[in-house]
Amino acid sequence: MHSLRRVLRSVRWYLRELTDESAYDRYVTHVRHRHPDARVPSRRDFERMRTDRQEADPRQGFRCC
User: Fold this and answer.
1) Which residue stretches belong to region Disordered (predicted)?
2) Could you report how far apart the first and last alpha carbons of the chain are, in Å?
């Protein structure tokens, strides 16, 4: 049972990294570590900032829709 949990955790980690679902978690860690007095944006605000940045710079990635 322990090894099954470990495998499932690994698969979950891999999928979150693959889909960039963990980007917000990394961002929050960065803000809290580097800028402890700064306000941490909500996940919704973070995703909006990220989308705006990607749309402003075509090198950030292709967005078809």
Assistant:
1) 42-65
2) 43
Residue partners of 20: CB distance under 8 A and separation at least 6: none
Question: 1 by DSSP, 3-state: which?
Answer: coil
What tokens appear for 28 in the block?
């929050």
Residue 5 C-beta-side C-alpha neighbours within 13 Å: 2
| Cβ contact 50:23 at 8 Å | yes
> Distances from the Cα of 14 to the Cαs of 43, 46, 50, in angstroms?
20, 21, 21
| Backbone φ and ψ of 35, nearest 5° | -135, 70
The pTM (predicted TM-score) of the whole model is 0.69
| Distance, C-alpha 22 to centroid of its chain | 4
**In this model, does residue 36 exceed pLDDT 80?**
yes
